[in-house]
Amino acid sequence: MDTITETAVTAIETISRGFADIGYICDQDIATALFLARQLQKPLLVEGPPGVGKTELAKAAAEYLDLSLIRLQCYEGLDESKALYEWQYGKQLLYTQVLREKLADLMEGAKGLDQSMERLNGFEDVFFSEQFLLPRPLLSALKSDDGCVLLIDEIDKADNEFEAFLLEILSDYQISVPELGTIKAKVPPLVFLTSNNTRELSDALKRRCLHLYIPFPEPSREAEIIATRVPDLDARLRTHLVDFVAAIRRQDLKKPPAVSETIDWARALILLNAKDLSPDFVASTLNVLLKFRSDIDIIEPQLTSLIRESAPATDPRGV
Amino acid sequence: MFMLGDFIRVLRAAEVRISTAESIEAAAIVETIGLGDRQLMKVALSQALAKTDEEKEAFNACFDDYFGAMLDAVKANDGSTSNDEQDKASLSDDNQDAQSGNENEDDAIANDNLADMLLNHDEAGLSARLAQAASAAQMSDVRLFTQQGLFTRRIMEAMGLADVEAAIQNARNSGDGVYEANLRQARQSLFEMSRDFVEKQISMRTANSGKLVREEALSRVKLSNLDRSDMHIMRGLIEKLAKRLATLHARRQKRSKRGLLDVRKTLRKNQSHDGLLIDLKWRHVEVSRPRLITMCDVSGSVAAVSRFLLMFLYSLDEVMPRTRSFAFSHACGEITDLFERKDPEAALTEALMRHGGGSTDYGKSFTDLAHMVMDDLDHKTTLMVLGDGRSNYGDPGHEILREMSNRCRRVVWLNPESKALWDTGDSEMKRLGAYCHSVQVCNSVRHLERVLDDMLRLSI
User: Fold this and answer.
1) Fewer CB within a 10 Å sphere, N or C end of chain B?
2) What ipTM describes this predicted complex?
3) In terms of domains, do A68 and A152 share one?
4) Close Cβ partners of B346 (under 8 Å, ≥ 6 residues apart)
5) Are residues B36 and A4, on separate chains, in Cβ contact within 8 Å?
């Protein structure tokens, strides 16, 4: 193995361990993506089914790098005045009111409208200075002094126009404000974009990002996640639970249970002091795992067989 | 040895869209992580190059195919670099020694004789040779499957076929029959190995370009002349086009929702603010969902086109959710429910069975249709008729068509026959066309796409 690779592999392992320490279990894919995003200073577009920890990844990255997290939640109709900056109209009005007399003084002696206008022109810049600029998430991310993690959450919910508007930030870490000129990032932020794939993102956006797809985790990795998040759960029960959830995901469901729901269910098991997965118990708590009536109707009749199939091999009641 | 550009070309052939910026990024990634860890490289490159589910899948397949042999070769080579120099020096005179039974030779040296590599089943060494030979033979230039023989030959020669031939000749001269047979078998396995390799390379590089050309050609071909074997490609093509149309028009519908500034309303609303325009009012644009009623001839010649029109329409239900469809030949019947219950293929077959056959009777069919939909026709409805207008010298039903035409927004007539044939024989296009807002020739997928695009555009 050459030295470059060795350095890279070590760095990736360090990231992986560091994330595990703060409670986020990541596999090689994720750790590599983080490594590359940092090395190449590229935004990272994270896709995957809901609840696999896309948003958590950005939060964990902020914690790991000890940077502040700036979050922009996208929704339909989000525009630049809410994402980038806004003039504080109220403040501007108030100041003009308060300074009215001062203005009158300044205007004194001006002859005619033309001259007054000329004088007033001289002060215009005062009212469109950074003092009256209200920074929204994107601008604060660019202006932060020692870098930050910028999370643009659920970009697929925003309109196409907004997506296009983001391109300048994503490729050059800068933004153009007509009244002020171009604002460049002091330290390029680490940008995460997440998407649930409710619509296809444009090629232009994808081209500017590294693309990470997080699928539902392997049972072994999910067991690790549960072990970190819900440490009190008995190991045997944990394996059974994870395998059972994996079996459910293989069914044709409207919304398969996410990792976050597995965690919730594991917590429920502890609260209810369950010793093993009995069909009755599972049936009564199935609504933690499945959120659609039709899904529950599909799973319920097969409960007994699903539980038996997913039971650990060592379990005496198993086969 | 490592050719990123070539790999990217292979990916593009597999319909992974890669821009120049992305290839530069890939090069930067290779520089950052080195070539030492194949799994790491696969993960890292896939993050930079493949950006949808399908692309990731294609990427993984291509990566395994492409680097499967290649990287092993690199490794095998790295391992023996130290020996390489001396090997080359001794190569020429070792040829004879190796097969005259000199077993004491160093393994590494023996490795360089192709015949021995084959006889000893030295997989790593062989694949290294193969990879070298592939670049020597300019494998990346292969374009057509007919070049298979040529490239197999080139590669075998570059790997050292001559040595093996010479060894066989020698063995025959010295009368060593067993050894000769072994060598012949070795040559055969060399041939098979090279052929497999070339086959794989060709399929990797050309499979999809063929498909793209085919799709392009199919979108122009007359639907009635379509070969049965092309049906599945056609279906994929139609879905692709429908998806494109749907996204295009879904976006337009959304935009028209936002509207313009309504000056009058804004001024009135802001009178209480001393005339300062604080609260803005927008004029809303009514988004009318197009309502489409289609009437398709499912008899004989026109059936093929009807089939695709219906297939197209039902792939568009995202932007045209309220489509009703009717099939007619000697009489007319509704087939909307068939498509709602079944997948398009099965629904089509059943529709053709139920209403197909029999000679076309436009008069009766229009009367039937009028009975079923007359009350539903309004200023939002578009009526689309697909047929050749040949009424077998019977009543063309233009009176009823006129009545329907007066009630709806638009009547579009699509005729699969070319214009020269209209109004010849029993064709009634002149009389029927008089009551249509537009009459068009429509007999290929390209025509279909244009017609539907126009319709979506006008209906907003």
Assistant:
1) N
2) 0.80
3) yes
4) none
5) yes
